[in-house]
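TICKET: design request
STATUS: open
ATTACHED STRUCTURE:
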């Protein structure tokens, strides 16, 4: 990454894992490991663990994120959580448009866009996920897919707000599969996202946006991925559930 322009951020996505006692144990283990990190450190945890995570990380360098947010402010939306409910308990980030939500829960670019704008309006920093599926990569339309997602997901987001937004490039075929994009593939698409942002906003704005790679990043492949100019950290699933592994990623991103 380009350290003069941006700070790397490593964000854990715990997905639907960890009861409250398990979450407490993992956070306590993480605290001393994360203390020396100079990169940004975020843990995105299930709704039931948010309050616990905010309490336990007070006074540390670990920030807390949610894994989803609804786009309406309040009302008859059974089972949903609003942005204001998250900020009120001290949550700072939220993952939006993760491929699992797109695949299993009907998330579309339109709803990703609504959630992103609602999060920003409430003062939450969104981590917006984009990425192609294997068939799209094999058909040679990765850039077309990413360009469409970036434009639709971020439509109407101001230049000021885009600088508060993290974009995670997550090739769907690499998530939870053990298959990682090569460092070249990750760099190519992250640079393409930045070029798309430069067209939508301007180069200085695009240069200020944190663009992460996500997809089976682990202690073995992190150094090479994080060494790429346009890869500003990672969104981490599996490896965020083990404090030691997550610690290695923090160390690599802090170099
Ligand atoms: C993710 O869920 O965002 C992710 C990248 O998962 P994993 O690291 O397990 O591939």
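STATUS: resolved
RESOLUTION: sequence designed for all positions
ATTACHED SEQUENCE:
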């Amino acid at each position: 990454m380009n350290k003069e322009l941006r700070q790397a951020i490593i964000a854990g996505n715990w997905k639907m894992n960890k009861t409250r006692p398990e979450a407490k144990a993992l956070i306590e283990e993480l605290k001393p490991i994360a203390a020396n990190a100079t990169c940004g450190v975020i843990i995105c945890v299930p709704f039931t663990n948010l309050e616990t995570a905010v309490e336990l990380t007070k006074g540390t360098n670990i920030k807390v994120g949610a894994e989803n947010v609804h786009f309406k402010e309040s009302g008859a939306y059974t089972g949903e959580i609003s942005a204001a409910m998250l900020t009120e308990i001290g949550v700072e980030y939220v993952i939006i448009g993760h491929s699992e939500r797109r695949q299993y829960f009907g998330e579309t670019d339109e709803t990703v866009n609504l959630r992103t704008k609602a999060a920003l309006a409430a003062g939450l920093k969104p981590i917006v996920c984009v990425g192609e599926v294997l068939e799209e990569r094999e058909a040679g339309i990765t850039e077309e897919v990413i360009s469409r997602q970036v434009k639709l997901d971020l439509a109407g987001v101001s230049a000021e707000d885009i600088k508060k937004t993290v974009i995670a490039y997550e090739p769907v075929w690499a998530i939870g599969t053990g298959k990682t994009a090569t460092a070249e593939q990750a760099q190519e698409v992250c640079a393409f996202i930045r070029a798309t942002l430069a067209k939508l906003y301007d180069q200085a704005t695009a240069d200020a946006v944190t663009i992460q790679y996500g997809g089976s990043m682990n202690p073995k492949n992190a150094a090479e991925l994080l060494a790429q100019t346009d890869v500003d950290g990672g969104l981490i699933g599996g490896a965020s559930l083990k404090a030691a592994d997550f610690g290695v990623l923090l160390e690599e991103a802090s170099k």
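CLOSING REMARK: The chain has a mean pLDDT of 97. The longest helix spans residues 183-200.
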